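All the exercises in this workshop are built on plain-text protein records. The record below serves as our worked example for the rest of this section.
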Amino acid sequence: MGRTRATPFAGAHVLLTGASRGLGAVLADELAARGARLSLVARDAARLADVAARTGGAALPTDLADTAAVSGVADRARAVHGPVDVVVNNAAAFWLTPLDALTTEQLVTTVAVNLLAPAELIRALLPELRTRGGHVVNVASLGGIMAIPNLTAYGASKAGLAHLTEVLRTETAGAPIGITLVQLAAIEGTDMYDDGMKSPMIDRVVRRAARLGLRMSEPADRVARRIADAVEQGRSSLVVPRIATGFHLMRRSPIAVAAALDVHRGKS
């Protein structure tokens, strides 16, 4: 699946979004257990405080749909733990709704949280990451590859995040920056899993795969371990579950061809 810079979490300052619940809260526990110093970002201040208390992290309550608020997150994290070593863009906004049934606010929030906030955080952190080295982890979704009804805004925003990650990889080539793209299916034990299973298509895919002995979902704690391992092992991408790797490779094939042609042109 490709290699990138490996980044150990022991002693690293990690800025983690979406940390108050679901996969983000479980990932905070996993990274804390590996010795990371955490700056935790989410909108729900009460839940975020609970996660910060048990992980020793710093709670930075922020509405990631508010562009003005996002622009100050990097400085707030630096003020607590110093320069950021790893940014994990995990937060997600999700409505299982057809496009014409979404409100303007829901549409704007989905794109802002899932795509614009990660882009702004990365943009703010790139100068120090280029100088000191570090890692960018973007958590996307197989919903950004497959055309799943009622996930129009979510799927489009996650597809955008995946593409941003691939372009960022080319723009930072040669810099001491690891970049890991995570593509997830259903994550058991999360609110998004419960909501996602209300989609007839998602429910059919998960259940039919299960009858064949194939898993299209995994528990949140296992996913968190796999994400942490991918960063520490220098993996450029991670697909969960593994059975869905083919979807990721098909999506990435034009990118690989373009990269090969560019290398060839440079040698001609």
